[in-house]
């Protein structure tokens, strides 16, 4: 199948309006972008001609997306819209169109196809680790070191 799964940035960049590919998104993303007044008629036309399909991911795909995001450490950076796009890609095995680093990192860690829009995309894929610059300890999550109360920083452990 030749279709794309679009996050909000793809709509802002005009991807569905200049593409002949079928496009999917979720209702959460559609609610986020439907305020685009100048393209409101264009969105309606895409829906009427069935070139834009709004679909919700199934529960298993959603759980898999959340689990993968937690594994990579990207979960705190992802919105419910972002997670819905990853889950839909897991379910449909399409191609995500996004410039979002966290979406890209999770998708690439899952072996999903993802293409950037206005950037060159991410180069490094890996897992985020929170670390304390004070006592040099690593932590799975958090904002502050539980041992010395120093604010935690993040670094990407590349694969």
TrEMBL record:
Domain Ribonuclease PIN intervals: 5-92
Superkingdom assignment: Archaea
GO MF terms, alphabetically ordered: hydrolase activity; metal ion binding; RNA endonuclease activity
SUPFAM superfamilies in UniProt: PIN domain-like
Alphabetically ordered keywords of this record: Hydrolase, Metal-binding, Nuclease, Toxin-antitoxin system
Gene Ontology biological process terms from the UniProt entry: maturation of SSU-rRNA
GO CC terms in record: cytoplasm; preribosome, small subunit precursor
Annotated function: Toxic component of a type II toxin-antitoxin (TA) system. Processes pre-16S-rRNA at its 3' end (the D-site) to yield the mature 3' end.
Record-stated family: Belongs to the NOB1 family.
PANTHER family for this protein: RNA-BINDING PROTEIN NOB1
Protein name according to UniProt: Endoribonuclease Nob1
């Amino acid at each position: 199948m030749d279709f794309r799964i679009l996050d909000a940035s793809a709509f802002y960049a005009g991807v569905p309006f200049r593409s002949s590919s079928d496009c999917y998104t979720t209702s959460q993303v559609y609610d986020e972008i439907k305020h685009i007044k100048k393209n409101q008629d264009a969105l309606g036309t895409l829906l009427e001609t069935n070139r834009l399909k709004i679909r919700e991911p199934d529960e298993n795909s959603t759980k898999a997306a959340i689990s993968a995001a937690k594994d990579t450490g990207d979960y705190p950076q992802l919105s419910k819209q972002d997670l819905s796009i990853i889950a839909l890609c897991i379910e449909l095995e399409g191609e995500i169109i996004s410039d979002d680093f966290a979406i890209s990192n999770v998708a690439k860690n899952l072996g999903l196809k993802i293409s950037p829009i206005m950037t060159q995309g991410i180069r490094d894929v890996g897992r985020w680790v929170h670390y304390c610059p004070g006592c040099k300890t690593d932590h799975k999550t958090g904002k502050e070191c539980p041992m010395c109360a120093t604010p935690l920083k993040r670094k990407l452990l590349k694969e």
